[in-house]
Design a protein that fits this description.
Layout lengths: L1 E4 L4 H10 L7 E4 L4 H11 L6 E4 L2 E4 L1 H9 L2
Parallel strand pairs: 1-2
Antiparallel strand pairs: 1-3, 3-4
Helix pairs in contact: 1-3
């Protein structure tokens, strides 16, 4: 799983806090410090909105939905 995010985003911060205790293997991709990730996200989804969780090529937006999904794993 890949989480496109940047720490200054309050919605991303909410997701990051929620995933800490879950011990899941999630690659964090900061779209601010690495513009390549921002372009990658846009190519995949047509958007640059974060947070965006991608699993098996399928994107998921909205922090509450991402948290709910990850807690169900």
């Amino acid at each position: 799983m890949i989480l496109y995010q940047y720490p200054q985003c309050p919605f991303c911060a909410r997701v990051l806090q929620a995933i800490k205790p879950l011990n899941l293997d999630i690659e964090l991709r900061n779209t601010i410090t690495n513009p390549k990730y921002k372009q990658e996200l846009k190519a995949l989804t047509g958007r640059t909105t974060v947070p965006c969780l991608v699993e098996n090529g399928k994107p998921m937006f909205e922090s509450a939905d991402i948290i709910k999904y990850l807690k169900s794993k």
